[in-house]
Amino acid sequence: MNLFTNARTKLTIYYLAIIMAISMFFSLIIYHGATYELTRIERMQRLRRPGISFLIDPEIITETKSRVFLTLMSLNAIILAASGISGYFLAGKTLNPISEMMDDQKDFVSNASHELRTPLTSLKSEIEVALRNSGLSLVDTKKLLRSNLEEVNRMTNLSNYLLKLNRYQEGSFSIEFKDVDLAQIVKKAVGKRKVKLVLEKTIVFGNENSLFELTSILLDNAFKYSKDEKSIEVKVANINKTKILEVTDRGIGILESDLSHIFDRFFRSDKARNKDGFGLGLSIAKQIAQMHDASIKVFSKPGIGSTFKVIFS
């Protein structure tokens, strides 16, 4: 029995115990009230008609009490069965988000471990080979150190990405929100790179640094998968009171089957695996968008290009 099933069973039992305790409590009250009333009727008959046969046969009163008892027990059995089914269903509903979070955490740990294992394995192999080489020259040593530094930088970048993603997901830091011009943020993010800009002054309520990071991620993604940066277009506009940031490239595009996964942590399509990166940038971008009550959508066709659109409400 796996952890989820075990927890679901225990939670169902707890539900049943609580419901049955309440049901039995009220059943006892009902039974006591009903039998008390029958006993009172029997007693009143004795007092009012001494020496005369009872209007209600005592056996009937005893039988009625038994029927009340059996009826209440039957109702409790029905309640037990219905509660068991409902409790099991509700327990599954209650635990499902936790189960999904645990599965997500397992995938996260597995993917992070895999990403860290690659540079660590490379470092270990290069160092072991160098230690076995007694005639290692100064030039070779520097070359080895440069290679090691690249792997260390890769691990540092990965840890920085993970920390950023965790901070945005948990909201574990306070940031200042104010009115900022999205067009100016785009200009700053683009810098001297030659892209087509279609910018309209657009004021949004947000954090300048976070929006700069969001824009940079979308731009870096476009540059990574485009052959010519001049084919990239960045648009900022107000359309029917909706503020939009749009980044379009003429790159390799994204398969339709991959579109639903591109914002998942560590997800990289088969075509993207030969590019640098960890598959975390778009996850961070989505978290930043959500932090600003914005949605981020993607439209793409393989071989034609992709458009990422951030919509601020």
Topology:
Layout: H1 3-48, H2 58-132, H3 138-170, E1 178-181, H4 182-190, E2 196-199, E3 203-206, H5 208-225, E4 233-239, E5 242-249, H6 256-259, H7 281-291, E6 294-301, E7 305-312
Parallel strand pairs: 2-4
Antiparallel strand pairs: 1-3, 4-5, 5-7, 6-7
Helix pairs in contact: 1-2, 2-3, 3-7, 4-5, 5-7
Give the tags.
313 residues; alpha+beta; Helix Hairpins; Heat Shock Protein 90; 3 domains; five-stranded mixed β-sheet; 7 helices; 7 strands; 14% strand; elongated
Characterize the structure shown:
The chain has 313 residues and is of the alpha+beta class. Helix content is 63%, strand content 14%. It contains 7 helices and 7 strands, in the order H-H-H-E-H-E-E-H-E-E-H-H-E-E. The protein has helices at residues 3-48, 58-132, 138-170, 182-190, 208-225, 256-259, 281-291; strands at residues 178-181, 196-199, 203-206, 233-239, 242-249, 294-301, 305-312. Strands 2-4-5-7-6 form a 5-stranded mixed β-sheet. A two-stranded antiparallel ribbon has the order 1-3. Strand 6 (294-301) and strand 7 (305-312) form a beta hairpin. The longest helix is centred in the N-terminal third of the chain and has 75 residues, at 58-132.
